[in-house]
Amino acid sequence: MQVFKFGGASVKNAESIKNVASIIAHYKKNELLVVVSAIGKTTDKLEKLTKEYFQGSAHALTWLEEIKQDHQYILTELFADPSHPIYDDIANSFVEIEWILEEEPQDTYNYLFDQIVSLGEILSSKILAAYTNQTGLSTSWIDARDYIFTDNNYGEAKVDWHKTETKIRQDLPIILNDFVIITQGFIGSTSENFTTTLGREGSDYSAAIFASCLQVDNVTIWKDVPGVLNADPKWFDRTELIPELSYTDAIELTYYGATVIHPKTIKPLQNSKISLNVRSFINPAENGTVIRTTNSGLAIPSFIFKINQVLINIQPRDFSFIVEDNLSHIFNAFHSHRIKINMMHNSAISFSVSVDDTGENITALLEELEKRYTVNLEKGLELITIRYFNQETIDRVLVNKFIIRELKDSYTCQLLVKNM
Ligand code: ASP
Ligand code: MG
Question: N or C: which end of the chain has fewer CB within 10 A?
Answer without folding.
Answer: C
